[in-house]
Structure formats: C-alpha cells, structure tokens
Amino acid sequence: MNWAAFTTAAPELAPLSEERFGAHRHHVLATLRRDGSPRTSGLEVRFLGGELWLGMMPNSLKALDLLRDPRFALQANPGADMGSGDVRISGRAFEVEDGAARAAYVEEVEPPQPFHLFRTELTEVVRTYIEDETYLVAQVWKPGEPVRTLRRR
C-alpha cells in the first residue's frame, strides 16, 4: 500500500503525518544490518505523486541494508514542539532504478547524482500525542484495518 492508498484509507491521519514529516528536513530511518541488528541513520524524505520516497547516497549502508532486506521504520523528527504529536511509519522499501517515476523524482528534487531511490509500501503508521495534558493517545493504522485510537492515563 503506497502513500496515496494510505491517504484514502486514513484521511484524517494522513495529512497530520505528512505535516509532521514536513515540519523538519531530517528524520531517522531504521534498517536491518546483515546480522539482523538495527541500524539508524539520518534521512530526508519526499511525498511526491502519491508516494513516500526515500533517496540515499550511492552504496550508503542504509541503502545496502534495504537492498538486502526491505523492511524499515521511519521516525519523524519531533523537533522542539511536540504539539502535533510524533509519527512513525513502517513498511518495505524497493529500489526504483529507472523509468518515468525516477525521472519525475529527479526533475522535481534534483538530487545529487548518482543516488539510490526507494519507493515505499506501508505496513503501519502510528501517531502518538498528548491529549488534554491527561492522556497519551496512539492512533494506529494498518492496511485493511480502520485507524485504532488507544488512550492511556
């Protein structure tokens, strides 16, 4: 399920998630090393043409991780203001090596060449925030399910 499908499935959660990622330029990507342990790296993301794109330097360790095992978690940079909450996206990333999608990305973003470009398939989006200074609220979305809202005191 791509970003466009997520926005259709969760029309209230999607713009809040995109806004959180748009608030800062750099975010944190978690990938899996060859031995299965986690690796975290800084990353810039783009929402273009109904997709969430991950662009990376050639042969960066995070890119090599995704080429070997496409699973990832992406944590939005919370910055100093957590008023709109915290967002995490999980899924799988698949490299786009050529074609119209890559050309459109290059035209829009003008990334340094060469680079790796990954399109994402989402498996979970989670937003957490504080409500009324009383509750920790988690909104959880998974493909094929409605958004669940959990509140803890």
Structural notes for this entry:
The chain has 153 residues and is α+β, with helices and mostly antiparallel strands. Helix content is 23%, strand content 42%. It has helices at 3-9, 13-22, 61-68, 100-109, and strands at 27-32, 38-43, 45-48, 51-56, 71-75, 86-95, 116-131, 135-141, 148-152. Strands 1, 2, 3, 4, 5, 6, 7, 8 and 9 form a nine-stranded antiparallel sheet that branches. Strand 8 (135-141) and strand 9 form a beta hairpin. The longest helix is centred in the N-terminal third of the chain and has 10 residues, at 13-22. The chain is globular.
Key words describing this protein structure:
153 residues, alpha+beta, nine-stranded antiparallel sheet, 9 strands
Low-confidence stretches: none
Shape: globular
Residues in helices, as a percent range: 10-25%
Radius of gyration: 16 Å
Oligomer: single chain
Give the strand tally: 9
Query: Structural class, judged by helices and strands?
Result: alpha+beta
> What is the residue-mean pLDDT, rounded to a whole number?
95
Largest sheet: 9 strands, antiparallel
Write down the secondary-structure element order: HHEEEEHEEHEEE
Q: Quote the beta fraction.
A: 35-45%
- Helix count equals 4
Short synopsis of the structure:
The protein has about 150 residues and is of the alpha+beta class. It has 4 helices and 9 strands.
